[in-house]
Amino acid sequence: MDAKRILLVDDDTSDVELALASLDEHNLANEVAVARDGAEALDYLYRRGSFADRPEGNPVVVFLDLKMPKVDGHEVLAQIKNDPVLKTIPVVVLTSSREEQDLIKSYSQHANAYVVKPVAFESFVEIVKQLGLFWVLTNEPMPKS
Is residue 76 a contact partner of residue 38, using CB atoms and an 8 Å limit? Predict the structure, then answer.
């Protein structure tokens, strides 16, 4: 069975460390690829640049922040959902934005979920853990064609 990789796209080092720690609690962190901005996320998905040698196959889910340098989360989401090969990858927007326009735009771009990062440390850890458990262990991914 292929490893069920998660692609975590976030430029906030503290949020990345917290997310990895919470996923590690259920032995999910070893299959997390981290991209620090939207351009890096696209390089990962298209297996180019520093990710040219990564194993084949798409992540089982992308946890995507919206507010990032180089390429923002909305552009990454649009590219994923408009690509015939990538469009079936579930994308969970995991952001600090509570702006209604970000919520509407994310769902109109076919995000699979929109989760606002809690400010409290314990709440953030719990939400990431629950997201990881659901998308890696509970959800049935699209079969490979």
Answer: yes
